[in-house]
Design goal:
single chain; metal ion binding; about 180 residues; 3-stranded antiparallel sheet; mainly beta; Immunoglobulin-like; 7-stranded antiparallel sheet; 2 helices; SOD-like_Cu/Zn_dom_sf; Superoxide dismutase copper/zinc binding domain-containing protein
């Protein structure tokens, strides 16, 4: 009997930065297997020691918005499990399940005092697929006072698949598919 296995490797990245801040850079998100941990690769520049926390927010930026950082545009922090923020330990010292799903700065440490920042994290509670996915939401870098510094939408333009076909002799033929997706 022939068998087929399909492996989807989700990947996402930030779009264009908007807002009053001068920061630039990129945050890439990837999972080597669906429902696996998400690798978060952060490379931010031009923070000028003005940034504080950074979080995923509920909605992506509305195209053509004159106020992309406004609460009306992107809403608040992405917190689908309704985690009580006052129960979270300080930034970077708790376990991943002790913070909102989208609280990247809380989980791994905030950006206070930094001009540039590069880091790679592994997050078991930041999915790229399913009902709690961060794709088609936004990431906000906040000022140290908590107001919004810059915002970007989280998007994906490719879906990476690897198919493995097994025949009755357990021989495997593998090929990869890269499909463009517009969101």
């Amino acid at each position: 009997m022939d068998k087929t296995a399909l492996l989807v490797t989700p990947k996402a990245r930030l779009g264009t930065w908007f807002g009053p801040g001068t920061s630039n850079g990129q945050i890439w998100f990837s999972q080597s297997v669906p429902q696996g941990p998400t690798t978060v690769n952060v490379s931010l520049t031009g923070l000028n020691s003005l940034a504080g926390g950074y979080h995923v927010h509920v909605l992506p930026i509305t195209s053509g918005s004159t106020h992309p950082c406004s609460d009306a545009n992107i809403l608040g922090h992405f917190n689908p499990l309704n985690w009580k923020v006052t129960d979270s330990p300080g930034p970077g010292i708790g376990s991943l399940d002790q913070y909102e799903v989208g609280d990247i700065g809380g989980k791994f440490g905030i950006l206070t005092g930094r001009n540039d920042y590069q880091a790679v994290f592994l997050d078991t509670n930041l999915p790229l697929m399913g009902p709690y996915s961060i794709v088609r939401r936004s990431v906000v870098v906040h000022y140290t006072n908590g107001s919004r510094y810059n915002v970007c939408s989280v998007s994906t333009n490719t879906l990476f698949c690897c198919c493995c076909f097994y025949n009755s002799g357990d021989t495997c033929g593998i090929f990869a598919i890269v499909e463009s997706i517009v969101h």
